[in-house]
Write a structure and sequence with these properties.
Layout (H helix, E strand, L loop, with lengths): L24 E2 L6 H9 L4 E5 L5 E7 L2 H7 L5 E7 L2 E9 L6 E7 L4 H12 L2 E10 L2 E11 L2 H16 L17 E4 L5 H4 L3 E7 H8 L1 H20 L4 H4 L3 E8 L2 E7 L18 H6 L5 E7 L7 E7 L2 E6 L2 H14 L9
Parallel strand pairs: 3-7, 9-15
Antiparallel strand pairs: 1-8, 2-3, 4-5, 5-6, 7-8, 10-12, 10-13, 11-12, 11-14, 14-15
Helix pairs in contact: 3-4, 6-7
């Protein structure tokens, strides 16, 4: 391994941080230009960054001060886990075991800047968490607090970072890794006509390129693990309306291209779809950074001959069983909706 495990990165001295003097005040848009860009222009509900001194800071951005009061109770804590070859730093703001609320930050340790940021979170034995509210294009600094780590917590998290860096994450103890609940299999015929007729957003991938690079088994594993990571974030999203949403994941092949379709399109939940690493829409966030990603487009799954693969409802993920009866039903619904068009389900 030729790359330095602990890289040296010069901080941007021009970056200002909220402090005791700004608590309860509106932040000046010019002085805190970087925070307005991340919280306002990019719409990130949570993020981490290096400040002007090179120290790591964590930020939670709420829709209002009232939303902050509703979503933070008891002692805030950080939990370090590994998931799909990345480090997750989850900021837990509600300790209710029935309705835990966490904000998951994802770090690709193989990337120099992200590894350095993850390391800086731990190096002082404490990290500052800033609470902001973004309303009417204005940022308010609610307050800040310091979250400390025990020597055991630091040791465990450092071990996770090093194992991810060296590609040995599987050797970590089971409690260090996020393991999904067992997925229940249900028949796709159990889905209603309304669900099967929903419109959605297709993430189009050059699947032929993936097959050539990885082979069929590994390419399928990469796609499903990426979808599962997006579902994991949906289950633990900061906003309750996201956690309580229901959606279906479909797949459609056309030549060398594969479309993963998510219905409904979440336009009410996520207004902007772009390629930012921390984009609030988990499916855009993870699928659009795949090297095989080509484009996004609005589609009706029935029209492109897609088959439903996964269904998420009430916090549970279901794998959908497909057979000839499902194919016949999809063909019938296609005929009803697009009479005169050739059926893609033949």
């Amino acid at each position: 391994m030729t790359e330095a495990y602990e890289p040296h990165i010069e901080p941007d001295a021009a970056l200002a941080s909220p402090g005791a003097e700004t608590a309860g005040e509106r932040l000046d848009p010019e002085r805190f230009r970087d925070l307005y860009r991340l919280a306002g222009e990019e719409g990130l509900p949570y993020f981490a960054r290096l400040n002007g001194k090179g120290d790591a800071e964590l930020y939670l951005v709420f829709e209002s001060v009232d939303a902050f009061s509703e979503q933070t109770r008891d002692a805030v804590s950080l939990e370090f886990k590994t998931y799909q070859n990345k480090l997750l730093v989850v900021i837990w703001t509600l300790s209710d075991p029935l309705q835990p609320l966490g904000f998951p930050l994802s770090f690709d340790i193989r990337r120099t800047e992200e590894r350095h940021l993850a390391q800086r979170i731990l190096r002082k034995g404490a990290v500052t968490l800033h609470y902001l509210a973004y309303e009417a294009r204005s940022l308010t600094h609610i307050y800040s607090e310091s979250i400390t780590f025990s020597s055991q917590e630091i040791e465990r998290a450092e071990a996770m970072i090093y194992a991810l860096f060296t590609g040995e994450a599987e050797a970590l103890p089971p409690e260090a890794q996020v393991r999904e609940e067992e997925t229940e299999t249900i028949h796709a015929l159990s889905l209603s006509d309304e669900v099967l007729q929903e419109e959605g957003v297709a993430f189009v991938l050059h699947y032929g390129r993936m097959l050539a690079q990885y082979g069929e088994e590994q390419a399928q594993h990469l796609l499903m693990s990426t979808v599962q990571q997006a579902v994991w974030v949906m289950r633990r999203h900061a906003r309750s309306e996201v956690r309580g949403s229901a959606f279906t994941v479909w797949a459609a092949e056309e030549g060398e291209y594969l479309s993963l379709v998510v219905t409904p399109p979440f336009t009410g939940l996520f207004e902007v779809v772009h390629t930012s690493e921390d984009e609030a829409n988990p499916f855009a966030r993870f699928l659009m950074i795949l090297p095989a990603f080509v484009r996004c487009e609005d589609v009706v799954p029935l029209r492109v001959g897609a088959y439903p693969l996964l269904r998420y409802e009430n916090g549970r993920l279901y794998q959908l069983e497909l057979d000839e009866q499902v194919q016949a039903r999809l063909a019938k619904l296609h005929q009803q909706a697009f009479s005169g068009e050739q059926s893609p389900y033949r």
